[in-house]
Amino acid sequence: MLRPRAPRASGRSAGGAEGWWPSFTTGLRFLWRQRLLRRLTLVASAQNFVFDGVYLAIVVTIARQGVSALSVGMVTATSAVGAMAGVMLAPLAGRRLPSATLLLATGVVCAVLVAAMALTSAATALAALLAGCALAVAVSGSVLTLARLRHTPGHLQGRTNSTIGLLFMATPPLGAALAGVMLEGPTPAVFLVFGGLLAVLAAVSPGEGRSGRPTARRGMRRTRPTRAALRCPHLRRRRSPGRTWPVTRT
């Protein structure tokens, strides 16, 4: 009697599952070699650092006014509503605007909104400003997700995603700790400092040609070979695999 042969396991599956540390280091090495993903991840991690500090500062500011725990919970719920609105808005914004423009715009919006928190201590106003930040962060997060999917090979998607997620979770506690130290002083200064940090992050976010589609160099154009050029032996040799035709200046 013939029995169906089970498929042979190949690669790492034959030798057992890969450990978490080798998976993390593999994803980290790939992430570090990719300039675009590296910059996007570092900027987003720094933003998470800031936002956790901002959230703690808002909670402390509201609590010092003697408001109820329900009011603090409503602030959190409002920020969640803003984040959900940003998730729904992200596809439309991605179709209308280049990725670099989205990163810059959302970074500037967050910086302005956080700095504006220094002007008020009302729970309603702080909740509205926090919801606006959550909306902008959700839109900018779609840029990182799309860039990761486009620039990461299929067999490294899981490792890279895990590495990015770990980096995202590592920075928020540090931001909350910094906010706790600064809250010993004037509360408006905390929002101004974090707003300034967000402005710096918006300025260093990847620009045009690095976060969107590849763009041609300015003043340069690619020329297609003519039939006469194809008959030249020294030009035919340049059509080897992996080579491109020379770039001429206009």
Which SSEs are present, and which pair or pack?
Layout: H1 20-33, H2 35-63, H3 69-96, H4 99-116, H5 123-151, H6 157-170, H7 172-182, H8 187-204, E1 220-222, H9 227-231, H10 233-236, E2 247-249
Helix pairs in contact: 1-6, 2-5, 2-6, 2-7, 2-8, 3-5, 4-5, 4-8
Description:
Its main location: membrane. This is MFS transporter. It is found in: Cell membrane. One of its GO terms (cellular component) is plasma membrane. Keywords: Cell membrane, Membrane, Transmembrane, Transmembrane helix. This protein is an all-alpha fold and 250 residues long. The protein has 2 domains: 23-204, MFS general substrate transporter like domains (Growth Hormone, Chain: A, Up-down Bundle), CATH 1.20.1250; 221-249, no CATH class. The chain is built from 10 helices and 2 strands. The chain has helices at residues 20-33, 35-63, 69-96, 99-116, 123-151, 157-170, 172-182, 187-204, 227-231, 233-236; strands at 220-222, 247-249. Strands 1-2 form a two-stranded antiparallel ribbon. Helix 1 crosses helix 6 and helix 2 runs parallel beside helix 7 (172-182). The longest helix is centred in the first third of the chain and has 29 residues, at 35-63. The chain starts with 19 loop residues before the first helix and ends with a strand. The model is unreliable at 4-15, 209-223 and 234-250 (pLDDT under 50).
